[in-house]
Amino acid sequence: MSSVATWTMLLWALALTCTLCIFAALLLLYALIQSHNTTVPKWRPRNRPIHLLVVLGSGGHTAEMFSMLRRMELDPIKYTYRTYVVSSGDNFSAKKAVDFETTYLTQHKDPAISERPLPATGSYSIVTVPRARRVHQSYLTAPFSTLSSFWSCLLVLRGLHPDQGPFHPESTHSPHPDIILTNGPATAVCIILAARLLRLWHALSARFALGSRSATVSNNFRLRTIFVESWARVTTLSLSGKILLPFADRFLVQWPDLAGKRAWKGMRQTEYAGTLVD
């Protein structure tokens, strides 16, 4: 008799778990579809400083990213704080970020704003997160390293990563990035999915929480994502691109054959932006 009761309880627990999983999946799908069918709000006033987060990947991804930043003539007066995210062991990308900050941004200052002072030292940070999957790593252990990377990315987006240092309330930038810019390294998957999760949590908290705290959070929460497909992808999207196509706020491609692609009907399409690298 006791065994029957035990099996009954297990079946009820299994049914409840499945119901909760289905509900969570439907909630995530609904939130994703709604976000693609609504206009992205203008969170900041026109002249408000911007916190830019740039995801770097080893080798070609990093070279392309800094080529894009040079081409767009990144203005340190407008983008007052920059966070560069690199994977563990990627000393090349970290060095390139330092070189970009210490040479290019100071030597290529716009003459039109030459009378305006550059932000003080400490206007950028380089944050190291664990690799989602190392080369030749077993697929059995990959989920654990991916979860570790994802958790670290959540800390970065909340301004709580040890490499970022303490956030001062009087600072001109928010601990949450205004814009997340990436061109496809594996770390980008964790970063953009983490941003989506935080935005969903924020939206639910703002809807159901009471008091002034939720309004304060609403004014300081942005995390808008831009995915730029690599210039090397001419006719097909990269694996990172295929995964993130439904999740990025804007998905830019550099070749006409990739324009107009979407994850499924009703989702935002890829945008042809032309060549974005030097």
From TrEMBL:
The keyword Membrane applies. Its main location: endoplasmic reticulum. One of its GO terms (cellular component) is UDP-N-acetylglucosamine transferase complex. The chain crosses the membrane at residues 49-69. Pfam families: Alg14 (PF08660). GO terms for biological process: dolichol-linked oligosaccharide biosynthetic process. It is a single-pass membrane protein. InterPro entries: Oligosacch_biosynth_Alg14. GO terms for molecular function: N-acetylglucosaminyldiphosphodolichol N-acetylglucosaminyltransferase activity. The keyword Transferase applies. Keywords: Endoplasmic reticulum, Membrane, Transferase, Transmembrane, Transmembrane helix. It is found in: Endoplasmic reticulum membrane; Nucleus membrane. Involved in protein N-glycosylation. Essential for the second step of the dolichol-linked oligosaccharide pathway. Anchors the catalytic subunit ALG13 to the ER. Belongs to the ALG14 family. Heterodimer with ALG13 to form a functional enzyme. This is UDP-N-acetylglucosamine transferase subunit ALG14.
